[in-house]
Amino acid sequence: MTLFSQVVQYTISGITSGSIYAVIGICWSLVYLITKVLNFTTGEFVMLGGMLTWGFRGTGLGLVPSVLFAITCTILISMIFERIAIRPVRFPSEMTYMMITIAAASVIKGVVLLGWGSETRTIPDFFGTEVIHVFGATMTSQILCVLGLLVIVTLGLSLFLNRTLFGKALRASAINVTGASLMGIDISRFRFFCFGLAGGLGAITGIVITPITFTGYEVGMLTGLKGLVAAIVGGWTMTGTMVAALILGLLEGFGAGFISAGLKDVFALLVMILFLIVRTLDLTLGKGRVTR
Amino acid sequence: MEESGILGFIRNRWYFILLIPLFILLPFLTPHHSLASEMLIFAIFAMGYDILFGYTGLLSFGHAIFFGVGAYSLGLILIKLQAPLLLGLLGGVFVTLVIALAVGFLSIRVRGIYFVMVTLAFCQMFYFIALKWAGFTGGDNGLHGVPRPPIFTIHLDSEIRLYYFILILFVLCLFLALRIVHSPFGRALQSLKSNEDRAKSIGFDTNHFKLISFLISAFFGALAGGLYALHLNFVPIETLNIMTSGDVVIMSIIGGIGTLYGPIFGALLLVYLKNLMSGWTEQWNFIMGILFITSVLTLRRGILVEVKQRFFHKR
Prior knowledge:
Mean pLDDT of chain A: 87
Strand order of the largest sheet of chain B: 1-2
Oligomer: heterodimer
Helix content of chain A: over 70%
Largest sheet of chain A: 2 strands, antiparallel
Number of helices of chain A: 11
Structural class of chain B: mainly alpha
Radius of gyration of chain A: 20 Å
CATH class of chain A: Mainly Alpha
Shape of chain B: globular
Order of helices and strands of chain B: HHHHHHHEHHHHEHHHH
């Protein structure tokens, strides 16, 4: 393999994982902006999407119905979760919400582990396994599906958020919850809806990547965290999250290729630590204290 | 009228003396002696964590770093250097404090949920380092063969003796923690928790206080980790896993944060429960998650505080 085709190969894998992180990051920000819940079950919904599809296929259903069932189930689980564990919290704070979602993630993981064991599962590629050659690098049609997903999700969401009344109301409540509810927007319905939407998007992502990366009860945590890194670095906006996620994916792809595949998972965390800490640095260092 | 200061605190809670025989007899009440040691170890860990979380208000998800690094460094010092026990404990604490200084220095600048994220990321990084650096740490298998050298002339090879050694350290830690919490310094920490900006405007160097609080709780974590290594005779890699951080957070919240005795109670309770269900380790995270969610939804301030409020302060 020449250096050029290697670079192409790493770019492809980087963009693939970047698109995944972008969609997951959008799931985090959808929920966080409207409800102030840092929803750690996001990653688990990604896992659930893949695992449920695998499970439904095991009962003899075809690929399309099992995908649809899996998405519906995840949306329902996400909404039920909001109803029984997030809404009844007395004296809510971001910390309490976060702790609850972490515990809930552990519960979901526990259920999947009990039900289906700890083996890795996979589902077949959607459109066969032919290999496409690009400049000496190879890719499968599934990777195109992932890229298609990112395009569809971002286009769909931006159309929804900018062109429909419901979407505009959603954006308004993300900017100012109190103001929006004073204007007669039913925030509690939106919270319910956002959890459902994030669950559904997470499930779709999980289903699309399962043929490439496989799935198992514990994949949710790390995948989810990387999406969160993208959302934080991207400043919780959709464009920002996408750019950050693609950079993160490319960094991971090239890091895994040229430095060490084992350290792949550390890059995302390093990026987040550096980003969060550098952001707080006092850039007027040495010019004396700045009074605020 | 509550007296202030540590003496007043103890005088107001004289009935805690009733707990002394319980702690002395604990190893005979548990299914096996070593469980009592484990309970106390996590109680020390949770107690230190409460100084950071309950009193200073910093929710750290990186405390497994200190527990794990404490355990690993004690293990490595005892194995590689054949050092005596006290030196091992001191060395473990020292190494951990150096690491805590670096991690704390970087992460306390970040506030709110971002602090949680940074500490969580640090924790994952340390976990990966321990996992990949298998030649030094034993990687996935953990660090095996940690000896239990005698302390001066007293041998610690029986579980009972180890328990009483840990009990002594536990009592010392408890007094230290009470002393810290009921000092002007402790009050300053609590002011950070209630309103950091106001504390800053009064003239407190908040980052300085946060860092010290971070180091203090790292000290407790390191001690607990070291004792854990002694207790198991090996260091599992799970000590560095974020699940360990999660455990201590859950113990603190279930017991009731900001009270010291709440997290201690939470730790004793959860470690005991975990052992009861040792046949179902796969289900443990699931059960703990359910327990935690119900506890946050129904007993918001922790079991002990809620029980006290409902039965002793009838309104």
